[in-house]
Amino acid sequence: MQFTQTPERTAKKILQANNWNLELAIDSYYQNPNTTSSSGPTNQDAIHAIFDQFRQPSDAPDAFSIGATMAYFEALGLQLDDVTLVPLSKALGSESMGEFSRKGFTDGWMQLGADSLPKMQEKLQELRQSLDTNEEYFKEVYKWTFGWARPAGTKALPLDSAIEWWRLLLQSRFGDNGHLERWTEFLNDKWKKSISKDTWNMFYEFIVSAKADPTLTGYDENGSYPSTIDGYVDYYRNLEQ
């Protein structure tokens, strides 16, 4: 297999870890070339043992409760305000915050190639590096966050929850021009409603464009942005007058 001159088995593993997206897989390889070196097969039984080590007595046999997840994160040295918990949760197939299934946990770590706590800690660093350096991967994680963080049975994110996730995900990346903070002020003072999936997704496009055009002079009111963002732009322009 012609894939960055790697063996077929290694190339397949990288592709699986990147959802068979060739461009993302190649980016991942060049950002973390040492992670693809052969160090023996990943031990699935060892991953199951780690899952059982942290599973609480009251948990179902194949599920992590919030308590189990907290204990596991603590063992990894992962704080709840560390953005890395988001790509990790995505990689491990978490369907809602703080909860993991045995299958998602095992399949995820098999794809990442880690079967011990020290190896898992190394992979956390790699996930964070990819989040910081790979724009497409960051965007994928950002969009995934909405469905994961949304309360079960609802179609929108509560406003306070959305604001906290925006701060965690976007502050270090886009916080330098003031729009993230003013957006938060607008939502709290004027909008005061929950956040739809469309607003969540399109705000990422907006904050990227605002980084290049901080005065918003090129903003098109007739474009594809939702009314929430149109309202923010009016709010911002009135502040600047």
From TrEMBL:
Listed Pfam families: Cullin_binding, UBA_4
GO process annotations (BP): protein neddylation
Keyword Ligase found: yes
Functional note: Neddylation of cullins play an essential role in the regulation of SCF-type complexes activity.
Residue intervals of the DCUN1 domain: 42-237
Species for this entry: Arthrobotrys musiformis
Protein name as it appears in the record: Defective in cullin neddylation protein
UniProt KW keywords: Ligase, Ubl conjugation pathway
PROSITE patterns listed in its UniProt record: DCUN1 (PS51229)
SUPFAM superfamilies: UBA-like (SSF46934)
A GO CC annotation given for this chain: ubiquitin ligase complex
Molecular function via GO: cullin family protein binding; ligase activity; ubiquitin conjugating enzyme binding; ubiquitin-like protein binding
Top-level taxon: Eukaryota
